[in-house]
Amino acid sequence: MRIGARACAARRTSSPGKRVFRHRKRPEGSQDHGSGDRPEVIEVEVERIDGEPARGESLRRRAVQTLAPVLLAMLIDAGDLATFPGTTVIALPLGMLAGYLFSGFLRVATPWRILISGITGLYWALPFTGFFPLATSITTVTEFFSGKPAEDGPRP
Hints:
Elements: H1 5-9, E1 10-12, E2 19-21, H2 55-82, H3 88-105, H4 110-125, H5 134-144
Antiparallel strand pairs: 1-2
């Protein structure tokens, strides 16, 4: 008598985790298919569910999208406050540079960036505008009435 006769009777198929026994007796009334019957094929659809960003991540992104324009406008007003009458020659190009860079941070389209930089340069160059936070006021009202926060793409 050989030890492991049943193990020798087991034959491995193409899938490593499946064994087929040659001398297996089927119990009476079993649901197993005969050798000629094919089992029913079940088709499965796989739908990929993209994960949404974490709640803290989306909150941070919304806060940056809402507050960034207002904070940059406050910096423009602070720069205007720092320019005194008689510094027009320096204030005009510095204001234009600040307006161009800040609008680029907000992903504004290039024609609007040029227009915003020109207005910012004039705002810094005009005397006695330092005590009126025009940039902050206009930006806050605009963001309040915009309807929805800005997307990741360029602004119109």
